[in-house]
Write a structure and sequence with these properties.
- The complex is a heterotrimer of chains A (158), B (390) and C (365).
- Chain A is α/β, with parallel strands linked by helices and 158 residues long.
- Chain A contains three helices and eight strands.
- Chain A has a domain of 92 residues: Beta Polymerase, domain 2 (2-Layer Sandwich).
- Helix content of chain A is 21%, strand content 30%.
- The longest helix of chain A has 12 residues.
- The termini of chain A are far apart.
- Helix content of chain B is 68%, strand content 1%.
- In chain C, helix 3 packs antiparallel against helix 4.
- Chain C has 15 helices and ten strands.
- Chain C has a single domain, classed as Cytochrome-c3 Hydrogenase, chain B, CATH 1.10.645.10.
- Chain C is of the alpha+beta class.
- Classes of the chains: A alpha/beta (158), B mainly alpha (390), C alpha+beta (365).
- The interface between B and C is large, with 47 and 54 residues.
Chain lengths: 158, 390, 365
């Protein structure tokens, strides 16, 4: 059975690596400082005691006042999983370091988050809209997204 | 009318027309020629149409389906229904197409197979012309089809079509050589290139005398005809339709018909060259010939229903590294035997058959051992481990 | 000779892109120089739609994600909901879920195998064989819930209804006959020289690369990494059945093909054990339609036919999920597409893409 590493345990491990990098933690997840995410991810992947080699999922949640970017990490060798989160305040110009250099699997998932929730990832090799088309206005999975009033046209006709 | 021998259907028709009409010679000649062309071409296209139905039916049975069964008894009129539908379909020419080439390609595709028909004897004494370079003539005609494919692919203004036609030309050029070599073996055996002479020369079907030649002919012919496993030109799952992608309506229909007619033509060639034409008949010779042709067509459908498609580089490697040396072996062996026994007695003939089968059975596995066709591993070497848990 | 690369669009309407996938291939003759996958043609905004439906209604949305494997989508979703609400399904319900999910795995792998061979150019014969068996399994689904594709069979706390009496003999018959059918399919084509030369050694993914790129499911196991969530994190009753995890050793197209065939055989074994173990009882813990789970979040990954499928649900205490995110294996398995295709030929591109077995409904959601 995959051991679910609690947020508190994860927070402890992360703060042992980088002092004062953890903002908060609860039963499920640990929140880390946004500017340190790349560093912490590299630690969680490469450190033998952590060895989270599989990035299960990257997503984000819009809580209106802030966004949580959620990383589900899995370690195949340790058969363990945990949840790492980053809280980003504000609604405009949200940005975070891309973890594609740590896990190549973040590539398409970060593009999806960028497309649908408008969090941009610095250092992503190919950050552009994926599910919606180029020139689409807004980010549909945000809570305040409203469909443009009809009739509206796609940028290239249609 | 010197090139037309006495017993061809043409001369028979010509004489009867001339006798009934009694008019000028050129009129009888023209009318007779028209009548023969009408019968032969339409009969041939009809058989091609029947083959489209037959292949759909046969392949359906291979795939545990029923196949066409709505139009006419056993769905035999399906091809006609399709033709009617194609006739009413909008005829679209892409804006970027080269109109002249685009429109000419289907005709260039169909015409050579009809021309090649002239030298095919499809029954005792039934042929339009018996020319002494018939084999060469047929090969020349079948080569024109590749030109049509290139025209169609190039003029469509479609990248997939262009890719398809490039593949077609590369493949046809490569397979023309083993094909001609296989036919060369037959020519050596028969001592003639005339189809009628070749049939008469077969005291035993050449399938027995030259098994290697028959195999090479079958394989090379499948490639010439773009039949699976060499159907990279159309390659529905890769190139959508290859050179056919942009064609619609009756232009597509003509391509389709030409392809199937070419298979029928190949079947006729195989029956003449390797199965002794209409000879050994227990039925009327025309029917017997048709049965042999349809036997070949059934095998063609069978192959189509079974084999996946090869990759273009594997196909070319197969032609040059495997089929070409094999066809050389075949020609050399047949030539030496013909020199040794120029006029073989039955015993010598059966010895020849034994030797040739021996050569076939040694050369084929030997060649596959010495040639590397890019196959990385054999089936047995790959062991998929299973993890035993619980 | 002066040549220049040509950009060829494969898709979005192309017979071999399994829906509306589009590859922008930069090609030099037949050789592929660059690949850019373009997706989004089937994007329906399921995650957004889920925010406006209550928990039970969302089940119908999950059917339409991976429409070749609706049962496992249902299962992943209801398991996540159950973790959120704290409801546990009764034993019989869990067994029925596992039976349905394994049947669905068989269906999905049959479709994957059939279309993989179709992409190889086998003129529909293996595909028809596979579809013939798939039809029979879909008949079973029809007995279970009345639908064949969009099943919506599972509910929070169990399944929609108990299996009817005629289901069990029909299931037994199929389970008995499937291995023979797999033998037939393998006898037809698995050792075909053309299949071997076209698939072996083509588009190799190393286990390390696969894990790094978050690739899961048969594609990962074909690369030799033993990671099956049915073993690693058993959900429902997978801890009570024994089965093997087939592993490949090369990570090429052939392994990905053969792994799926092996997995069908394993699925048959799982179903046989479930049929033996299942006992009469309730199939559903609660018949409630509306749930108000406590504030929190849940993520239960399951081993769907295509890989790790998980629904990340965030609850704000209302009757609808505040946020639903689908960890779609089809999408994430496409991460390495470029590395797989560059350097190979156009024909290989089609086959390699088919070997990943993506479903566009799930890629775009």
């Amino acid at each position: 059975m995959t051991a679910a590493v609690s947020g508190a345990d994860l927070a402890e491990a992360v703060s042992n690596y980088a002092y004062d990098s953890v903002m908060d933690s609860d039963r499920d997840a640990a929140w880390v400082k946004p500017e340190l995410i790349l560093d912490i991810c590299r630690f969680l992947r490469n450190d033998p005691s952590q060895a989270y080699d599989l990035l299960s999922s990257v997503t984000a949640v819009d809580y209106v006042e802030f966004f949580d970017v959620v990383y589900h990490l899995t370690s195949i060798s340790r058969n363990a999983s945990t949840v790492l989160k980053v809280r980003l305040y504000g609604r405009e110009a949200l940005s975070l370091s891309s973890v594609t250099s740590v896990w190549a699997g973040a590539d398409l998932q970060e593009r999806e988050v960028y497309d649908l929730l408008g969090v941009s990832f610095d250092g992503h090799p190919n950050l552009k809209r994926m599910l919606t088309w180029e020139g689409f206005q807004g980010h549909p999975l945000r809570r305040d997204y409203l469909e443009p009033p009809l009739p509206y046209t796609w940028p290239h006709g249609g | 009318m010197s090139p037309l021998k006495d017993n061809s259907i043409f001369s028979w028709t010509y004489e009867s027309v001339a006798n009934t009409l009694g008019g000028p010679e050129w009129l009888a000649y023209g009318l007779g020629a028209m009548a023969v062309i009408m019968v032969v071409v339409n009969g041939f296209l009809l058989i091609g149409t029947i083959f489209t139905w037959m292949e759909r039916k046969v392949v359906s049975r291979f795939q545990s389906r029923v196949g066409p069964n709505r139009v006419g008894p056993f769905g035999i009129l399906q091809a006609i229904a399709d033709a009617v539908k194609l006739l009413f379909q909008e005829d679209i020419v892409p804006r970027r197409a080269d109109r002249l080439l685009f429109n000419a390609a289907p005709i260039v595709m169909l015409a050579p197979s009809l021309l090649a028909l002239a030298v095919i004897p499809f029954g005792s004494g039934s042929y339009v012309a018996d020319i002494n370079i018939a084999v060469l003539y047929v090969v020349g005609m079948s080569g024109i089809a590749s030109l049509a494919v290139l025209m169609a692919g190039y003029s469509s203004g479609n990248k997939l079509a262009l890719l398809g036609s490039m593949r077609a030309v590369a493949m046809l050029l490569s397979y023309e050589i083993p094909l001609v070599m296989a036919l060369l073996g037959i020519t050596i055996l028969a001592g003639s290139m005339s189809m009628v002479d070749i049939i008469e020369a077969q005291s035993v079907p050449f399938l027995l005398v030259s098994p290697l030649g028959a195999l090479i002919f079958l394989i090379a012919m499948s490639a010439e005809l773009n039949r699976p496993p060499f159907d990279v030109t159309e390659a529905e799952s890769e190139l959508v339709g290859g050179y056919l992608t942009e064609y619609s309506g009756m232009k597509f229909g003509v391509f389709y018909l030409a392809e199937f007619s070419n298979v029928v033509l190949a079947g006729a060639l195989f029956a003449i060259l390797f199965l002794d034409g209409w000879e050994w008949a227990v039925l009327p010779s025309h029917l017997w010939f048709l049965i042999k042709v349809f036997g070949f067509l059934f095998v063609a459908s069978w192959v189509r229903a079974t084999l996946p498609r090869m990759r273009i580089d594997h196909i070319l490697a197969f032609a040059w590294k495997y089929l070409f040396p094999l066809s050389l072996v075949n020609v050399v062996a047949l030539a030496m035997e013909t020199i040794a026994w120029p006029d073989p007695s039955p015993v010598q003939l059966w010895m020849m058959i034994a030797i040739n089968w021996g050569i076939a059975f040694t050369a084929i596995p030997l060649m596959s051992l010495v040639t590397n066709l890019g196959t990385p591993a054999r089936a047995g070497q790959r062991v998929v481990q299973t993890e035993e848990v619980n | 000779m002066h040549t220049q690369p040509v950009i060829v669009n494969i898709g979005p309407h192309h017979p071999s892109t399994h829906g509306v996938f589009r590859m922008r291939l930069t090609m030099d003759g037949e050789n592929i120089l660059d690949v850019e996958p373009v997706i989004g043609y089937l994007h329906r905004g399921s995650e957004k739609l889920a925010e406006e439906r209550h928990y039970t209604q969302v089940i119908t949305l999950t059917d339409r994600m991976d429409y070749v494997a609706s049962m496992t989508n249902n299962q992943a979703y209801v398991l996540s909901c159950e973790q959120l609400t704290g409801i546990t399904a009764p034993d019989r319900g869990q067994y029925l879920r596992v039976i349905a999910a394994e049947l669905q795995r068989i269906v999905s792998h049959l479709v994957a195998t059939g279309f993989f061979l179709q992409d190889l150019g086998a003129f529909a014969t293996p595909l028809m064989y596979a579809m013939r068996e798939r039809e029979r399994v879909l008949d079973l689904f029809e007995m279970l819930c009345g639908a064949r594709i969009t099943v919506s069979y599972m509910r929070i706390g169990g399944v929609f209804q108990d299996a009817p009496a005629e289901f069990w003999p029909a299931l037994g018959k199929i389970v008995d006959e499937l291995p023979a059918f797999i033998d037939e399919l393998e006898g037809l084509i698995s050792k075909n020289e053309i299949v071997l030369s076209r698939t072996q050694g083509v588009s190799v993914i190393s286990g390390r690369d696969a894990v790094n790129a978050s690739i899961t499911g048969p594609v990962l196991r074909a690369s030799g990494v033993s990671w099956d969530l049915r073993k690693a994190a058993p959900y429902d009753v997978y801890d009570r059945v024994s089965f093997n995890v087939p592993l490949g050793d090369q990570g090429d197209n052939y392994d990905r093909y053969i792994i799926r065939i092996r997995e069908i055989r394993e699925s048959v074994k799982i179903i046989e054990q479930c049929v033996k173990q299942i006992e009469p009882g309730p199939v559903r813990a609660t018949s409630a339609m509306l749930f108000r789970p406590p504030v929190g979040e849940s993520y239960v990954p399951i081993e769907a036919p295509k890989g790790e499928l998980g629904f990340y649900l965030v609850s704000d205490g209302s009757i609808a999920p505040y946020r639903m995110h689908v960890r779609a294996p089809s999408l994430i398995n496409l991460t390495l597409l470029k590395q797989m295709l560059v350097g190979w030929k156009l024909s290989d591109a089609i086959v390699s893409f088919g070997s990943i077995d993506v479903n566009m409904g799930e890629v775009d959601r």
